[in-house]
Amino acid sequence: CSAPETTAGSLTYAYKDCLMLLKEGVDPNHRHRLGWTALMVAAMNRQHSVVKVLLEAGADPNAGDHFNNVYDTSREKGIHSLEGEEGACGSNCSSSSVSSCPLSAVLVSREDEFSSRLSSRAGFRGCTALHYATLADDPRAVRMLLEAGASPLQTNGVGHTARAYAKEGEVSTLLQEWEGKFLELQARREAEERRRFPLERRLKEHIIGQEGAINTVASAIRRKENGWYDEEHPLVFLFLGSSGIGKTELAKQVARYMHKDIKKLVVLFRLIVHLFSVRAQVAKFIGSPPGYVGHEEGGQLTKLLRACPNAVVLFDEVDKAHPDVLTIMLQLFDEGRLTDGKGKTIECKDAIFIMTSNVASDEIAQHALQLRQEAERVSRRKLADNLEDVQKSDDIKISRQFKESVIRPILKAHFRRDEFLGRINEIVYFLPFCHSELLQLVSKELNFWAKKAKQRHDITLQWDRPVLDLLAGGYNMHYGARSIKHEVERRVVNQLAAAYEQELLPKGCTLRLSVQSEGQKEHSTPSLRLEVVGEDSSSRTLDIRPPLSPEH
């Protein structure tokens, strides 16, 4: 058989045939057109020598089956529309014989490779070779797969591990024993990975600036991961700072880190709390009590926590929430449980709750600017004195005295509950961007548009360092990184779009952004200039005409 035409089952007909096919270059993970692999077939049929040679050849013991059941697979693969008169398969199939009936063809393929012991109606999507060896009640195959790296914790499409299908006896005991080993090994690997690649470093790869906020959050999560936390209460953060400064992005990255091994699961539940700013809408939060409209639907928060009790939950704009919502959140933070409108209690002590607020954002921003100005004065003074220990650093820290004397009274006046503030593990401060961080933001935004220009129009976009300084000047402290995004769109992308519309950009050209001063005056306003760079490094400034005014 040639590799593209080889079925998964043909690899398992005989040990010698399997060796021959593998030597000819057949992929050991090649799938049958209906979704299964050779290792799954060998495990189900107790072919130990074939299981051994496939594993040695690199077959993946954790690959999941794409086959569900005979009827679903027939529909999904488009083998038959299931229309017409009843045929030999017993369904609405127009075929007149078993050999020509598509459903029967699927059933024959399945039973020919897996044996008829498996129900044709049961679902098998996501089952691994370990699931099939367990269904076959084969301790030897189970052990071979486990020793080759098969995960006893991997679930199939309906959420069951292999042990859920094990009979009482050796296979069940073996799987239980290896589950403990696997958890222990997994914990050691994760601990080693955390030591080698700390959370602070991971977060800084996605977030510009905010070193103090990153360190505070990472330290709290490290306590939780290593067992140094109060397991009776969930972890609660309050993120304070201006809009567009990284609060929501940090929450997203925390969620991605905490649930890195969970696939197809929404781990960051973002609730816009100001939507629950009036009493009539509070019921949507936890669900209406019995007898009221919407009782059966449940609440947004309770449904989410019931689905994932260890989720990362983001409460956006918590300062705009109705007091009744704060009462619910206080119960949640204090007891680690929540009672829904139906009277059912949901345990969520392992969850992480992150609240964001713009309260005191102006005070925080002004204090940070003062600290930076003071740091610059100290640095210049040291430089003038020729001291060797001069270090230029943009890293500043909010003082404890400022937090207690300025921020704490503002929070108490707004939330009016000491017990609510007392249940917050960490209040995290997000500071305005310094100049070096603004340059990183501008560079990131320009790289984004350079990638778009290359992908969509085959245009290479370059820029000089002064361009970064010019665009960084568009920073607005109240709008954060969004102001940089809008500045790049106004001053760069608008020119690119106009030049493209006026057919000034040859396909495959190289464009360079540079800064020029308007007029000859000393204090003239700088502007951006677009130049087409030739193959000989010569440049030509684009003459972009302004759009016609409406009266013309």
Automatic annotation (TrEMBL):
Region (Disordered) residue spans: 516-552
Chain ranges of the AAA+ ATPase domain: 233-379
GO molecular function, one term: ATP hydrolysis activity
Gene3D superfamilies hit by this protein: 1.10.8.60, Ankyrin repeat-containing domain, P-loop containing nucleotide triphosphate hydrolases
Pfam families named among the record's database cross-references: AAA_2 (PF07724), Ank (PF00023), ClpB_D2-small (PF10431)
InterPro entries, alphabetized: AAA+_ATPase, Ankyrin_rpt, Ankyrin_rpt-contain_sf, ATPase_AAA_core, Clp_ATPase_C, ClpA/B, ClpA_ClpB, P-loop_NTPase
Cellular component GO terms, alphabetical: mitochondrion
One GO term of the biological process aspect: cellular response to heat
Ranges for the ANK repeats: 34-66, 125-157
PROSITE patterns, per database record: ANK_REP_REGION, ANK_REPEAT
Keywords, comma-separated and alphabetical: ANK repeat, ATP-binding, Nucleotide-binding
UniProt keyword NADP, yes or no: no
Domain Clp ATPase C-terminal: 433-526
Family annotation (SMART domains): AAA (SM00382), ANK (SM00248), ClpB_D2-small (SM01086)
Annotated protein name in UniProt: ClpB homolog, mitochondrial AAA ATPase chaperonin
Source species: Astatotilapia calliptera (Eastern happy)
Lineage, broadest ranks: Eukaryota, Metazoa, Chordata, Craniata, Vertebrata
Chain's gene name: CLPB
